[in-house]
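sry for the spam today, last one i promise. struct tokens for design, 365 residues
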């Protein structure tokens, strides 16, 4: 089968995998197709954590028709027992003749083990089809499984001149309807959303997903050293679980103040009023949070940039000018002293969102 045909079916599998986005974490999203003589026999995707993997779903749908097919799967089939048996056994038992893989398993303990097993069983294996797309699709899982830390996406909405509010603090709305709808899609794709106390005090957000589609609500995290926000803030009323991260110095007071909110109080080390973000990310990783969307203001943005914790930026640029020397900007804090210390980005996309634009980039390591 030609490479172009391989790419055609892998592209379909990648599209299928996205259907599981927001439901399978901490597992990665995976899609699979069974093809014979250029015809689709069956397909599947990983639908929810603990449920059948994509390969198994496709194999079950195919039944005896799976014999002699080519399996297209976005991620190397698993080779160990977890919530479900290893997929490599189902592939061998179905007598699939060839397996085409998007990317190998990023887990150092399992990488290429599935491929080796399949080849030993006499099954032809081709790996690396649309590899960059397949790797990007599981970038959060890849970081988490290797480091134990979540993949951090910093989201910001600003005017063309870099403002996130007017000089009076007015910030609704910087971006237009399409951009705001996009935000809910991004929230739904992440395990957790984070803001600082100032965002809660000024905007009183819910940080829920409101796009009309069935979703698993993300964790909502507030950084609040002394527990300054109100117990009646909207973030406590509905949606996914809430983590209120405070300084260990104020843990007892904060726990007492928010005892009726059902929020989880997370005690962190602090220095000069700044909570220990490395400790925070480590705790989130232990909870199985693989992706973190940071939605705070300029101070929160700089704190994550300064420590080198941002992996990717999603920057909405609105087609408007706000002005004002005292108006809040998208990245504040102390900032850099010399331009050769600037945080460098690797742009990947510039996408129109109505009258606004989405700038997407990775942070150079």
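last one done:
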């Amino acid at each position: 089968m030609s490479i172009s045909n391989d790419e055609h079916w892998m592209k379909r599998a990648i599209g299928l995998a996205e259907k599981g986005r927001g439901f399978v974490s901490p597992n990665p999203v995976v899609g699979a197709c069974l093809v014979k003589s250029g015809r689709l026999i069956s397909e599947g995707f990983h639908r929810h954590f603990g449920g059948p993997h994509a390969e198994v779903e496709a194999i079950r749908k195919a039944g005896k028709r799976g014999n002699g097919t080519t399996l297209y799967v976005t991620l190397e089939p698993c080779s160990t027992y977890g919530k479900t048996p290893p997929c490599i056994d189902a592939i061998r038992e179905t007598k699939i003749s060839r397996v085409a893989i998007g990317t190998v398993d990023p887990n150092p303990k399992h990488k290429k083990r599935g491929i080796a097993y399949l080849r030993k069983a006499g099954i032809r294996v081709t790996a690396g089809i649309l590899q960059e797309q397949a790797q990007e699709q599981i970038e959060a899982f890849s970081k988490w499984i290797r480091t134990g830390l979540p993949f951090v996406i910093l989201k910001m909405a600003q005017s063309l001149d870099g403002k996130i509010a007017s000089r009076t603090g007015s910030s609704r709305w910087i971006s237009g309807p399409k951009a705001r709808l996009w935000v809910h899609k991004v929230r739904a794709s992440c395990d957790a959303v984070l803001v600082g106390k100032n965002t809660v005090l000024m905007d009183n957000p819910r940080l829920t997903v409101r796009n009309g589609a069935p979703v698993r609500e993300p964790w909502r995290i507030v950084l609040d050293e002394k527990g300054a926000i109100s117990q009646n803030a909207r973030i406590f009323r509905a949606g996914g679980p809430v983590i209120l991260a405070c300084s260990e110095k104020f843990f007892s007071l904060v726990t007492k103040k928010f005892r009726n909110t059902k929020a989880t109080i997370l005690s962190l080390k602090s220095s000069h009023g700044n909570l220990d973000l490395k400790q925070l990310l480590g705790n989130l990783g232990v909870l199985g949070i693989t992706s973190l969307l940071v939605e705070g203001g300029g101070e929160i943005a700089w704190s994550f940039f300064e420590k080198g914790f941002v992996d990717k930026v999603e920057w909405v640029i609105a087609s408007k000018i706000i002005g004002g020397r005292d108006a809040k900007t998208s990245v504040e804090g102390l900032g850099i002293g010399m331009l050769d210390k600037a945080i460098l980005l690797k742009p990947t996309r510039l996408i129109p969102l109505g009258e606004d634009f989405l700038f997407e980039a990775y942070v150079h390591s």
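The two ends are 38 Å apart (CA to CA). ok im logging off now
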